[in-house]
Design goal:
The protein is α/β, with parallel strands linked by helices and 305 residues long. It contains eight helices and 14 strands. The radius of gyration is 22 Å and the shape is elongated. It starts with a strand and ends with a helix.
Length: 305
Amino acid sequence: MQICDSVTGSQALPPTAVALGLFDGLHRGHQAVIRRAVECPGLSPAVFTFRFDAKSVVTKKNYARILSPELKMAMLEKLGIQVVLQPPFSTIMAMDPADFFYKIIAGFMHAGAVFCGEDFRFGKDAAGDAALLQKLCRENGIQFTTVPPVEDGEQPVSSTRIRNALREGDIETANRLLGYPFMTAGTVVHGQHMGHSLGFPTINQLFQPEQLIPRYGVYATIAEIDGKRYIGATDIGVKPTVGDSFQPAAETHLLDFDRDMYGRDVTLFYYAFLRGERKFNSLQELTQTVLANAEEARNLLKEKV
């Protein structure tokens, strides 16, 4: 997959079928738009998106990334996208709608077909809408299609609904709206090594900047390592019992796994919320609870590995 980070480069792109959107989370509604581009005959399936490169340019209230940039790119490739253009938002936010269309869509991306959601906005101050984009495409011989929203429970699937569900620990709803298990990824870092001494070795991962952090508590998860899947119980929080960090982290006890993973990247897939965060009266109580959570995760997820 070809990834372009700027519209000023010299990359030569083939004629494309472009799916337009921020595509944060790549949920079922986003996938419906992308699928239309992938299925468009005779054109290379492409995505135009962008990166919020500074907090000062974030325009969405309570915004936090559902997917890390790396997971987002991997999933776009899995969906069949061949070209991704993702310039920093600060470099395009001042373009008026016509400039955006002629410089990026018609010019840089050589679009032969364009697909977007009904609420897609573009250009300075979001002045351009789907109706204007349809007019510009028609005038320039470009096929244009708006894709209706995917509904769930008589409401459109949206990133806002997914963020709200994750912040409430409602992982089942979030996964249903996403169309796949919620994922986080991060490098395994050193903790206090207390879990190993207590009989339940763990891997510790910090969250990336701007990453949405689900409700603090314990989740039933699966980690993929070297092509194998391992069931785990992942504690998200600041470790109120141990008190070794004030930075939110994911600490996972993986069943049937005890290997040195320090410095390696691991992706976690979340399937169920097991309990809220709590402070334990003793390390013995902590140990018993962690092991019980792990067995609960095994019973829930044994058919998925």
